[in-house]
Amino acid sequence: MNGDIILEMKGITKEFPGVKALDNVTFQVKKGEIHALVGENGAGKSTLMKVLSGVYPYGTYNGDIIINGKVQTFKTIKDSEKARVAIIYQELALIKEMSICENIFLGNEKNKNGIINWDISFSETTKILKEVKMNANPSTKILNLGVGEQQLVEIAKAIAKNADILILDEPTAALTETEADNLLNILKELKAKGVTCIYISHRLKELFQIADRMTILRDGKTVCTEERKDLTEDKLIAKMVGRELTQIYPKKQRTAQEVVFEVKNWTVYDPSIDEKVNHNINFVAKKGEILGIAGLMGAGRTELAMSIFGVWGRITSGEIFLNGKKLKLKGAKDAISAGISLLSEDRKRYGLVLNQDIKSNISLSSLEKISKFYVINKNEEIKSSNEYSKSLKIKTPSIEQKVCNLSGGNQQKVVIAKWLMTKPKVLILDEPTRGIDVGAKFEIYNIMNELVDNGVCVIMISSDLPEILGMSDRILVMHEGVFNKELLREEATQEKIMYYATGGV
Amino acid sequence: MENEKENKFFSFIQKSIKENIRQSTMIIALLAIWLIFTFLTNFIFISPRNLSNLFLQSNTIAILACGMTLVLVAGHLDLSVGSVAGFIGAIAAVLQVKLNMPTIPTILLAMIVGGMVGVWHGYWVAHKQIPAFIVTLASMIAFRGAILGITGGQTIGPMKDSFKAIGQDYLPSFLYRITPKLDQFGNAIKDSYGDVVTGWVSIFGGKFYETNQPPFNDISLIFALIFIALFIFFQIKKRQSRIKYGFKVLPLNFEILKIVLLSVVIALFFSIMIFDKGIPYAILLVIGLTLLFSFISNNTPFGRHLYAIGGNAEAAKLSGINIKQRLMSLFVIMGVMTAIAGVVFTSRLNAATTSAGQNFELDAIAAAIIGGSTMGGVGTIFGSIIGALVMASLDNGMSLMNLDVTYQYIIKGLILLLAVWADIATRKKA
After folding, report:
1. B374 CA to chain A: closest CA distance, Å?
2. Residue B1: predicted pLDDT
3. A117 touches chain B (CB under 8 A)
4. A229, B5, B347, B398: which is deepest, by most CB within 10 A?
5. pTM reported for the whole predicted model
6. How does A44-72 read in b/e, with b if 16+ C-beta sit within 10 Å?
7. CA nearest to B382, candidates B23, B55, B17, B107
8. Among A308-317, B38-47, B48-57, B194-203, where is mean pLDDT lowest?
């Protein structure tokens, strides 16, 4: 490996009102390596990358960015692209209504005198798509692609810009294992071609698969930079959180009690394409257990949860029973008042009103409960939100803080608080720890255990196999819209789950 | 010691300005506009008579802006309010002039028609998912035609006296019906300190008049005093409740200072009218509606749901909010508010005309936007009322200056742009 330093960030300090997001951070990347940047949510990884890519312009931070020995003063993202730095954000920045080709050259259109040459654009796109092993027509609209393919288009876009330094922020968070493996292979190939990669991920296994070196951030400061071979997962976690985590999954011994929640003959159609998503599903959830629902992305787990909650799909058959009583739910409101709550997989889209404060978000589903004659008791609202904020350890100076200013883990806790305030009997959690750091994950697991101890029936949908294995008492594996297998915690292994999730019998 | 106290005081002021940066800048902007016009019009602008007029002029837009704020907050837009207000005014005029209907049934019927227009809009927006922009654009065009149909292209009037009173009359004076003449001394005081000071001093025993009667509308004064008393009462109650819940409250001396300052501002606002002809009924109506809508937007689940729908409709839906029903209610409320605005406007003109209500929708939207509303989860009723006052002040001041209408429109347009720019700039800093 070439030992040259391609990128050096020296003494980077970035302050937001009231928070020091980065405190004298030092970060060195060698040419042609895959360099992992790790740390808990809120440790400053994304902020550091935004400084590097010119999102926070020169002058709004202190310190120097040196690329190939030259001090850089990026004022815009365009400037950083000129220095051949390309960033792929956690949230994909593709325009859904435009084609792959249009997206790849968006902002760098192949043109002559302001007129786009579509022939060149298309042929280039085809070439680049081959590089990322994608077999799609360049004129396919983004909205017709899966998340994994969209991620590849993002990488193709970066390749089209001739990037020397490629920054990937949580690229695999929304991908299945196969898709993620595919992506990692492509990164290895890019590395062989001399592209330098900065890789941010919470999936520690991946980091150990591909990273050459790792830099660990904690609370806006650099902890250390180490060669991969000098690290183990335990060591890494300890450095990230600043403490030795004895056990990631705080599992307790429990015995399941009576059946609380039952779904019978559940069949749902996707109304937009009129296709069956769930077919004749039957399952029960018991008091005092966590029921895990495993499966591949697109197996129909989210659709099942959303349709039970009454916010998605055309239900052609099925019945729901809660404590032996048949429920007639006509929407989320009915479900909530019956005692069913759903934490959705995409907190920014379905969970939060980002421009409102923590308090309003927590109380949103319970406003009627704290009202008398249609008037909200605002003091009660402050009191309850404060209690939940404290008991869930939401890190914030006050509950008047807007949720868009919180880190992912804290945002997720706000959504959890919202649902806890509705006092659910059945709580369905769809990917409760996606994109969340280890420390916050641990806290959320503890909250889940506490809820089960208090008699709440918890159903957890997760694509994270260790999480499913570590937390569930019973696991249902879904494949193409039906439950293919039920596994008890004692008999379940990653291999078994994958076997049934991919259609094994 | 003294210094430290002072520092604490200023940091408190600074903090409260920072927390309400948007509203404080709006109030400062309004006062700046007033100051500029005061100088440009040789102090005519700031006279109680003119300010009273200005409040009356802002009336219809303020009423519409109350409803419009909620519509904008929920992420929608109502372009039809001008045409619908004109349409309802025309219906009221036909009922009164042609069918000789008494005033109260006329008003009730007008409000019912407004509500029905709201149901129509709500049906298309909430149940058929057609953007409100398009639904109300259609109504804007259609109702302009309906006005012509109802009025037959004629101006219809005059209205009955009781109907006319809504937009034109003042709270009656119980004791003193005539504004007495100032004596020589009184005139000197007035020249140096203005009408309001002269009035207040005379209430507390100053003798500036040729007769013994002080120059104020006594019922209006009593109303103002009750209003201030209630304001103080609710502030104290709020404080006590916060203490009961164990929340942090302001130190007592700051709290008192705050209440006193705000009471003085309220007193000043009312004295402008007390020492003129009294408080107009239409202003009472606006004050009532402003308080009601502020309360709805802050303290009811309905209001808070609108903010959530505008902020993130999908999250609102998954939080158990019945969006269809909320939007339906919203448009019905907007319809009723439009009807009220139509009644007030018709009453002020004392007739229905074919062009009544033209551009009201744009003024109401502009008022809300100047007041800090965005299409989607942000906005306050109070801000929109200030916005309506800004718009009315510009109209009033520029008319007093006899400025060409050409420039009046251009300046109003630019001010709107400036306000939004200032909003975005301050928000970035904050």
Report:
1. 12
2. 44
3. no
4. B347
5. 0.78
6. bbbbbbbbbbbbbebeebebebebeeeeb
7. B23
8. B194-203
